[in-house]
Design the sequence.
């Protein structure tokens, strides 16, 4: 009986250790946009990790593969830009191959071509700050649609207010990090949760009935870098002066009284 | 009875797992991506982990510059950083203006933080950051620093916003450093290759120079317009439109920049990730008219000399009037520290 108890204890010991060990390993938590069909001029991807990563080795592990599984050279501008907590890596699709008229794009073509399929691959081995490495390969399939060269259109957004939240549906997929940062309701503290084109603003306290204003920072971009100030690719001389640029766009909404 | 025993064993298991080092160790405190000394020996270091500019007062005795040569730099740094089989990265190198001691910041790849080293003979030795009187200033929220220029009155830091706008900026900090004293100007850089203004392209390499009593910065984005900016134009909450003086070409990202005077001519030297350093003569550096759309293009055959003797040179700093110290990539994963004549 005693031997059985000791055996069970050892098994439990090993089991708890294994579960803890696995739980402590870093993993890819999400890739934004969480969209299978992306524009041909997609500008950036965000890779969220389950724990702070060390950095400095990201582009040895992040690759874009073509339909045959071959890595695409110079797919990303290899400047590592991590969020302050080192949980989110922003990966620029090489701007020299997204923008028109640059030598590298002329020579090697765009990274993403309409109608083709690709795989974003994150190889095991990338280090976290704790010293653990990614254990599993991550892959996300991407299919490429037409390029997007137009600014987003806030007039096509729909707002659905309720006492405990404001549901916003944007006219197109917008930059994930931008949506988390660039929306606010005048005078109402709260948080935004982003799910594709849909954003839920949850106030810290329920909205009393009344009129409100949603402020949208004009720097908010779509997936191709077009914002409310200008499309991503603006000809020389066409960039609006700071005095001519809208700082924010305002969308009024009303929270009805409770019945 | 057995239930209690199992719980005790599980508790021991958890404790053992932690004791075996599976809990998160403390990460290194700083990531020093750029180093520059002022004339008095204050080392300004851009910390990309905490988005701060540090000032380290490094007091040393006067000494003449001596050539440095460390063939096994990566091996020495690897041991000092406990890197094992991981490669090491040298983020920047700087030379003390009084003692001519060479300093460098380095980390093991994926190590998350840097240590500071000083060169002593043919060895590198760790430097305790806590041994210096240190001042520091926070950069604006989200500003990830890239490079630093020091003038007699200011330090200028280039950055890119890491949180939301990804906009590029310059920050001018008046000396001596004090918290809050940061003037931030967004940058607009003309990229003559495709006739567009760039607002999300940080200056990844910069150097300072003076001309006719004015302080200037010369810098380049990774994609490679070389621009000139008057330090006095970097003003708070303003946009600074830089003057593009040169296009370096494609697939040749700049790594470091030096401006030195030889034969009464100011010369810009740009190390890069592709070939020998690019030597840019004073007429281009001081060009008043050929800017932006009219900027000269190295790829179009303009006479920008490629100095083959500098092939493999990455981070660099002026050692004395005639030489520079460079971190050189051997092409086989090894790094050395060498002294090269300024071309």
Sequence:
């Amino acid at each position: 009986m005693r031997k059985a108890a000791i055996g069970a204890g050892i098994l439990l010991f090993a089991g708890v250790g294994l579960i803890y060990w696995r739980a402590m390993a870093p993993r890819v938590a999400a890739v934004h946009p969480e969209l299978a069909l992306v524009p041909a001029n997609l500008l950036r991807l965000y890779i969220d990790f389950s724990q702070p990563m060390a950095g400095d080795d990201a582009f040895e592990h992040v690759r874009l593969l073509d339909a045959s599984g071959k890595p695409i050279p110079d797919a990303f501008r290899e400047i590592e830009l991590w969020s302050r907590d080192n949980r989110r890596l922003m990966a620029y699709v090489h701007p020299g191959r997204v923008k028109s008229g640059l030598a590298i794009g002329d020579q090697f073509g765009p990274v993403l071509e309409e109608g083709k399929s690709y795989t974003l691959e994150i190889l095991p081995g990338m280090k976290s700050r704790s010293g653990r490495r990614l254990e599993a390969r991550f892959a996300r399939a991407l299919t490429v649609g037409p390029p997007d060269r137009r600014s987003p259109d806030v007039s096509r957004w729909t707002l659905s207010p309720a006492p405990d939240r404001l549901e916003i549906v944007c006219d197109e997929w917008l930059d994930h990090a931008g949506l988390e940062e660039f929306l606010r309701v005048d005078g109402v503290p709260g948080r935004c949760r982003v799910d594709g084109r849909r954003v839920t603003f949850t106030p810290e306290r329920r909205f009393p009935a009344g009129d409100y204003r949603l402020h949208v920072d004009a720097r908010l971009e779509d997936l191709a870098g077009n914002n409310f100030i200008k499309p991503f690719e603006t000809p020389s001389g066409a960039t609006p002066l700071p005095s001519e640029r809208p700082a924010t766009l305002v969308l009024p909404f009303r929270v009805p009284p409770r019945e | 009875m057995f239930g209690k025993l199992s719980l005790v064993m599980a508790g021991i298991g958890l404790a053992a797992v932690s004791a075996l080092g599976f809990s998160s160790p403390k990460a290194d405190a700083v990531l020093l991506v750029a180093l520059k000394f002022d004339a008095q020996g204050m080392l300004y270091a851009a910390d990309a982990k905490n988005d701060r500019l540090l000032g380290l007062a490094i007091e040393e005795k006067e000494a003449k510059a001596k050539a440095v040569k460390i063939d096994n730099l990566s091996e020495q740094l690897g041991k000092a950083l406990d890197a094992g089989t991981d490669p090491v990265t040298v983020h920047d190198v700087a030379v003390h203006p009084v003692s001519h001691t060479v300093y460098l910041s380095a980390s093991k790849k994926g190590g998350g933080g840097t240590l500071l080293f000083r060169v002593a003979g043919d060895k590198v030795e760790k430097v305790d950051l806590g041994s210096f009187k240190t001042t520091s200033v926070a950069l604006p929220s989200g500003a990830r620093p890239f490079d630093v220029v020091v003038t007699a009155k200011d330090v200028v830091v280039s950055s890119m916003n890491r949180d939301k706008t990804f906009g590029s900026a310059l920050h001018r900090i008046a000396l001596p450093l004090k918290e809050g004293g940061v003037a931030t100007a967004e940058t607009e850089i003309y990229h003559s290759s495709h006739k567009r203004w760039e607002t999300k392209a940080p200056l990844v390499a910069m150097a300072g120079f003076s001309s006719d009593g004015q302080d200037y910065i010369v810098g380049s984005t990774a994609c490679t317009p070389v621009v000139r900016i008057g330090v006095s134009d970097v003003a708070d909450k303003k946009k600074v439109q830089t003057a593009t003086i040169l296009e370096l070409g494609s697939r040749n990202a700049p790594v470091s920049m030096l401006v030195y005077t030889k034969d009464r001519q100011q010369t810009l030297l740009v190390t890069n990730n592709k070939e020998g350093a690019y030597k840019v003569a004073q007429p281009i550096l001081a060009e008043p008219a050929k800017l932006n759309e009219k900027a000269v293009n190295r790829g179009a055959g303009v006479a920008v000399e490629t100095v083959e003797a500098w092939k493999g040179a990455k981070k660099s700093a002026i050692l004395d009037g005639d030489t520079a110290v460079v971190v050189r990539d051997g092409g086989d994963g090894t790094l050395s520290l060498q002294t090269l004549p300024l071309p």
